[in-house]
């Protein structure tokens, strides 16, 4: 998993509450277990018309937001089914951070396991960030995970809270496998001890 230390990028405003995982990545894209290639299906039912052409009114299809790496979204982001394809699709598109007033628990946990930083802010802070994000190509936000700060284009700063263990994992690029590999020497020592005691195994 890639480390997340800081991020400066275009923030796209997604003024939708209750964005569920089916909206993030529709069911027809769930046939794969690969984490790559899902970016094209992100928000597919909003991004594309029935004939497959792009919907020019959807925020991520607008020229200023095509390379957005941050989403500023409404309340209860990531609700619905527990599909891990949702953070995979966000990451494959290039989104490394989602800012909202609340997240569904399973989606929130899955973000950390895939190198995405979900940030919870107060409603009045979200309103300010949404206003920043609506500036188009000038909608650049900076996220400093170490300092736990969001910095706006006008120099404003918003602090956010994050669990210290999750912060450690993101800063060091540690998913569940990475955390296990950190204990590799202890695991090897334990296996050698067991082998000595139970050689018949």
Q: Can I get a quick summary?
A:
The chain is an alpha/beta fold and 201 residues long. The protein has one domain (6-174): Alpha-Beta Barrel (Aconitase, domain 4). 33% of the residues lie in helices and 16% in strands.
Explain the overall architecture.
33% of the residues lie in helices and 16% in strands. The mean pLDDT is 92. It has one domain (6-174): Alpha-Beta Barrel (Aconitase, domain 4), CATH 3.20.19. It is globular. α4 links the parallel β3 (97-100) and β4 (117-120). The chain is α/β, with parallel strands linked by helices and 201 residues long. The chain is built from eight helices and seven strands; from the N terminus they run βααβαβαβαβββααα. It comes from Methylocella silvestris.
CATH arch. level architecture: Alpha-Beta Barrel
The CATH class, by name, is Alpha Beta
Largest sheet: 7 strands, mixed
CATH 4th-level superfamily: Aconitase, domain 4
Function: Catalyzes the isomerization between 2-isopropylmalate and 3-isopropylmalate, via the formation of 2-isopropylmaleate.
Enzyme class: lyase
GO cellular component, one term: 3-isopropylmalate dehydratase complex
Catalytic activity: (2R,3S)-3-isopropylmalate = (2S)-2-isopropylmalate
Quickly list its features.
alpha/beta; 3-isopropylmalate dehydratase small subunit; AconitaseA/IPMdHydase_ssu_swvl; globular; 201 residues; 7 strands; leucine biosynthesis; Aconitase, domain 4; seven-stranded mixed beta sheet; branched-chain amino acid biosynthesis; 3-IsopropMal_deHydase_ssu; 8 helices
